[in-house]
Amino acid sequence: DGGITQSPKYLFRKEGQNVTLSCEQNLNHDAMYWYRQDPGQGLRLIYYSQIVNDFQKGDIAEGYSVSREKKESFPLTVTSAQKNPTAFYLCASRNFRGADPNEQFFGPGTRLTVL
Amino acid sequence: QQQVKQSPQSLIVQKGGIPIINCAYENTAFDYFPWYQQFPGKGPALLIAIRPDVSEKKEGRFTISFNKSAKQFSLHIMDSQPGDSATYFCAASSSSNYKLTFGKGTLLTVNP
User: What is the tens place of the pLDDT at every residue in B81-96?
Assistant: First the structure.
């Protein structure tokens, strides 16, 4: 059963703690992305990676970090430096050699609440 | 600077109606325009996408109309159903970097 999995579905953390969100894909897609969604704000790009061991900042990278040690995995760490971390986090992937290389496919999301 | 502007923010129609959601973009380098559908608590799902070399694309009850000179595109949902109630996002990207820029979304409610 192929797809993108994100875990956990819900995450609660105390203010000041770092937290890592998991994103795994078994689609053999090349690029992976992290977005943040807030009510009424659409999706905003945090980080993306087009190849293993390489990643680039998106539009709102401050307070976040990522790694891409394996093609199928792209974890996101929300650090204590992120001023307003409570949000819905979405991971996506893209296949360079797909029917349309622009297509991005999304995981089910992780809702992070910082208390 | 918001590069993709989406309207309206919310829309209510009766079953069988034809909701229309509009988007406008600024960056002329954009050459891929997808629409995503999102149900509460779920990730967005790709619905339909268009390239600027065509003015209209239809898939089932969903149609994209594209106006390159006006830098606008819209989603039409024919014979809308209560199950179509969701948030719809337009987006745009350029084949130079494949980074999607999203509109802020439209919450569609289809009443029975």
Answer: 999 999 999 999 998 8
